[in-house]
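Hello K.,

You asked for the raw outputs rather than the summary table, so here they are, unedited. I folded two proteins back to back in the same session to keep the settings identical. This is the first:
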Amino acid sequence: MTANTGQNRAPDLGKLREFIAERDRNAAWFFVGRTAEIAEIEDTCALAFRRFREGKALAGATRLFQGAPGAGKTALLTHLEKKWAQTGDGKPHPLLVDRPTLDDPAALVLAIAELLDPDKAQRFRQTVTRGRAATVGVGPLSGSGTQATATSPPLAGLSELRRMFPPADWDRPVCLMVDEIQNLEPGEGKMLESLHLAVDGLPIVPVLAGLSSSQAVLTGQGGISRLSDRSVFTVGCLDAGQAAEAVRRMLASFCIEAEDSDVERWATLLERISDRWPQHLQNAMQALGEGLLEVGGVLAKVDERAVTGHAHARRLDSYERRVSQEMRDGVILVGNLMAAVRDNGLHRHQVIDTIRARIRDRPEGSSARHLPEGMSPTGFLNHLVHRGALQEGEDHRLVCPIPSFRLFLIGEAVQTMFDKNEFMLEGIGEHSPTEHDARLLTEMGREPEPTDPAG
């Protein structure tokens, strides 16, 4: 008996086409997981609001979610924006803004005013516009005497917001969400610093997302030097079972005709081939969507081999786009470094020592093993972190967050060495180098060029 996952409705192929056309940086259609992260944000916002009602301020409420590209950081923010806008019920007011908006204080405080009271915000708009030059400066705390936790005055119109919107006008806190925070400019950090220190006493909690270099950027550009480890979260793979749940939701949402056993088989398959990495899962689900369109939405007729191949091709394409020119210039060096890092990782000083050792050991004529022009070992390491090739894991060790990306980078180095007829990577396995490198190429869907045994 064939069951329809959409309660006996015809497959929604039009909506399925929309899903396939989505770019991978857009909001996740079938958001799963991240329950601990969401709970942390909601608890912090709730605490900030309680303190506000008590006439106190909560300093250090900023939360940072960082990780490699494709880890689902943007999806987390957009999911929260949609969820809180729909539910209300004491949850925070969501305010997702582009990073440059931080450098326009008047626009930011007006957006907050609109969330609190659209009618009153119109009068506030006139006040801010009329006194824009004054409100973007600094001024004393006003209102009901909320205790600030820093001696600096509130910045950029926040004191005026405080004056016109006393505690009685706030029904819930505001969660200010900003993505791509690793690109923060110096001027944009002033607003974040003021909110982080809670010098205005308002229940506005910054929740930031960015690449693995974001914490260092906030310290340098944002002036947030007291962001504790408990406030920083690394976003990575989904938990076991969550990717499969996203596939089930997808099939149900599009009313796909399928037996329960087929649904479970595909859910298990996509969880496995995606490594539970959000971006790869999205790509695999879109590949499945393409297969469904070809057979009119009947899951049992989908070509599993074709879907797996298309998902793999999308993954390789994403990796190709992630590799910078600097990484291509030092392709063999990157491959050696990825081989040395292994699964358990290396401490930062060990990675830098490894880079230096590989440079010293390069053979004559190995142009792809050197550092990119103008880069030091430390600079190159920071670049790899920025590109998502490395990030801090357990015990502050640097690891490659996606095992298949590490394998891809090693494979790129091996292919280059085959092309150059150079010796193989050091320290990447117990097999002989040639056997091991050939296996790596096979796993990455490559075929090594035959080499001349005579050299």
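The second followed immediately with the same parameters:
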Amino acid sequence: MRLDIRDIVTKNKLVILILLLAAFLRVYKLPEFTTFLSDQGRDAIIVRNIVTLKHWPAIGAPSSVGQVYLGPFYYYLIAPFLLLFNFNPAGLAFGAAFLSLIGIIAGYLVTREEVGKLTAVLFLVFTAFSFENIEQSRFSWNPNLLPFFAFFTLYFFYKLMKTDKIIFAILLGTFLSFSVQLHYLAVFLTLPMILIAVTDRKLIIKLGKYLVAIISFLFFSLPLVIFDLRHQFLNSKNFLTLFKGGLVSGSSLSTRFLETIQVFFSTVLTFKINSFVTLLILVFLAAGWFFLKKKDSNLWIKINLLNIVTFLLFFAFMNASRLPHYFGPIYLSLFLVTAYYIANAKLNRFFIILLVLLYVGINVPHYYFFYQKGNNQIAHSQKVGDFLATKINHQPFNIATWPVQLTEDNFVYFLELKGLVPANRQKAEITDQMFVLCDQEPCEILNSPSWNISMFGPAKIDNIWDVDGIKIYKLIHNK
């Protein structure tokens, strides 16, 4: 059958328009606004070493909570984009935007196939215009692609339940491994899958397929498994420690649960909502379980609904901040379930359009890249790095920052592009010169409380420069 492009475009004008707008919102003035701080600088250095064949890491970045190390999957996924953009770190941000757009398209296609076109179009609108989803698509960071990998982890589980094909067992284990390597909270994806699987009358028959999924998961998680075996199960212990502390001091489970759902729904709707109202929203979503008519026909919706409820409930147990990217495993599940409810509520077409316009309307004011001036973090880091390169004079050097939170990896990336690699701080290597970057007065340089600076030993200030809001101190040994 010949593929008729014109016929496809004619029948999908609205979908194509939404996708074009989604792409525009994700790349508009991207280099000016993309985040390029320490995490992004660290990733850029690692990815550059991958594409230049200097080093292929077997472990990923440590998470921000509990020092749980992630797998290296994200580095290899995003690496081609750095090479494509000739080592400009903006390429990593464009890579994240491109992969997010691919995820949106794939999500639309599987939703249309499983639950119908109206649900798929509504799902597409929610995903395309979500400010949080757009924000996560506009810079490179491992948790930012988790919503799509989590969504397709559940999808392949659903296909395995429906078809028993071994290919879906392999894909399930693969995508679950990739999801966990993007962020450890993806382990909660196993909760709805276990609950669905144990209630399946064919559980015993499917045990072999689940074993294949587990083997696939372990295969793609092999670097993490080896790391744990070599370091006395450090990762596993740190992960369990996250739960050993129990609830946040002074807070009950019910308080933490209300806080969790309030932050989640407030993030999705882009304005703060009363915790009681967010509880009503969750109850309404959960109540849909009992109104889904046929057990098998809506299994895809049930899995995603269960994913939302179990994630929010178990996340409430965790002693961690409620940050937007932590909810990555359930964003698309919420969009899917909400779209399904609206599409099947037999609402007037005018009312559905009104709901869509209202949703888009509450997100648009948050598109800051339309009316704010870009922070140009990449250009800033490059300017400081290029200036430093002239002062280093191709001599060995140490580098540090004040305050410590400023960090230096985003500046070091541009130094290393010029072949200027700082002394290894972890090995306590000390050279004859140290450069300290400070962006907050008072700059505590001499006799600094920061070990990153004081490890240089007794020192005196040899020179000071101001570059693009950064005060740079050159220290030499005080003999």
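The chain has a mean pLDDT of 89.

Happy to rerun anything if the numbers look odd on your end.

Regards,
P.
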